[in-house]
Amino acid sequence: MKEEGKEYVVTGFKVPGDGWHVVEFQEGIGFLPGKGGEGIYQNERGFRTYKLPAIVKDDTDPDDGADISQLVGVEKGGTWLANILACVGLWEAVKNRFPGPNVSVFDTQVMDGIKTKLPGQTCMMKTELDKDNRARVKVMCSLSKYKGILREEKEKEATKKKGGKKVIEEQREEASSKGIDEW
């Protein structure tokens, strides 16, 4: 079968914990519904918000399946949506398909394309839980950029370890030479 039953299941809304996650965008991109699911949400200035469904998609991640959908406000969220498209590798294609300085990612034709091309695309997101236990995206990047970030983090960690080991060895040498004179 496609599905697999589990003997222990936690139900409800699953929130990803702190750390890096592989995130996959899902079908169903559209306007955020209004209160009670009726109509379409609008802020106090009448602007709408798109919901881009996304989940943690990594069998090795304990947060696999957790919801990390992105909300993008039409009023000021154009750059965030462009960043999402860049991180999943679609930005250049969008710019080439819809050239011009007056074209917005929120134009109907562009959004129609995004709705068909974004689902199934992946990127990396680093999240931190806030005081209300909501996952906040702190860093987002492409998979290839993430590999570079990992390399840099490992190099920094190795440098810290080498530096720390060197200091300890110098302290030991100093302590052992002082001890000889005092005895």
Describe this structure in words.
The chain has 183 residues and is an alpha+beta fold. The chain folds into 2 domains: 123 residues, no CATH class; 40 residues. The strands form 2 sheets. It has a 4-stranded antiparallel beta sheet with strand order 4-1-6-7. The N and C termini lie far apart (77 Å). 16% of the residues are buried. The C terminus is likely disordered.
Defining key terms:
3-stranded antiparallel sheet, 4-stranded antiparallel sheet, 183 residues, 19% strand, globular, alpha+beta, 2 domains, 7 strands
Mean of residue pLDDT values: 86
Decide which structural class fits the backbone: alpha+beta
Number of DSSP helices? Answer: 4
Q: Poorly predicted ranges (pLDDT <50, ≥5 residues)?
A: 170-183
Biggest β-sheet: strands ordered side by side in the sheet: 4-1-6-7
Backbone CA Rg: 24 Å
Order of helices and strands: EEEEEHHHEEH
Task: Estimate the strand proportion.
Answer: 15-25%
Largest sheet report: 4 strands, antiparallel
Helix content: 25-40%
